[in-house]
Amino acid sequence: MIIQFSQQDFAPRSFVAFNSPENTAEQNCDGGRLEIPENIAGGRVAADAVSPGLSLICSEMSFAKDTFFCEEYQDRDVLQIAFCLQGNCEWSYGNGARPHQLAPAECSLQCGVMRKCDSFFPRGPYRALSLSLGRERFADVIECLKDVRLLDSGDMIRTRVFAGTPHLRLLIRQLTECPPDYKLRKLFLEGKALELLSVFCSEVIGRKEKKGDVSREDRRCLRQARERIDEQFLLPLTISQIAKECHMSETKLKRGFKNCFGCTVYEYMVEKRMELAHSLLSSGKYKVKDVVWMAGYSNAGHFIKMFRKRYGLTPGEI
């Protein structure tokens, strides 16, 4: 696996990755680049400086075993928003504080001076998209976040984890699907990244951090419920059915799902169906009338209404 940093200053002064005593890689970062052996991790982490003070970090990693990263930095100043797309990650800053966790449909805000970071990735794929922000360029954003006590004036590294929202997930999808050969790619990425930052702030400022009363076991069951929807959203799933399969009460499922993922179970199923419909229409291979039933709808009028609500366009305008 290759990890490419947008600036040499962002690179760790020491880096260790391991998934067993026999498979351990200790490296120094030369030229803002790390290479991890394939027997430990596959994939790529690439940072793209789309404009001064704004970088996009795209992580596409895969792990054959549970894997640990241990990083040390020379007072790295961090202001970053991360969005998990697939898999799970757990990390701590080596200061005795409780570890943080990030799962799909969740996002995190990190700010402060980072000197050490220990990360754990369970076996399987992990995908994430992050915005790295320069303090000078985004001083007004920092002040807004301080006003609502999401940041403080100290330099200790801190993390807040929030439920994602459908709007955020839509923008992330647009960013990750931008063709690499698109002539105006950098302009597109900068515009969408700024829009993503704006939506994050508007939908997080004034909202409480994700509630801590969801137990680890309940969160595991809720993620199982989300994965069930991801796999079978075209079927006529019911709250009762999902709750039973995930060993939760219907009330706990509905309340916990909204709390953890920023939308109701029904809204999430609609979101998945609309994503499929948009992908099918964008391919140019299918007519609207065919996509209606392919996306799990029997009523074309209702499908068009939900599609317009999601994308601001009718299916025929795609």
TrEMBL record:
Keywords annotated in UniProt: DNA-binding, Transcription, Transcription regulation
Entry-linked InterPro entries: Homeodomain-like_sf, HTH_AraC, PchR_regulatory_protein, Tscrpt_reg_AraC-type_HTH
Molecular function terms from GO: DNA-binding transcription factor activity; sequence-specific DNA binding
Signal peptide location: none
Keyword Transcription regulation recorded: yes
Limits of the HTH araC/xylS-type domain: 223-318
Stated name of the protein: AraC family transcriptional regulator
Protein species of origin: Cloacibacillus evryensis
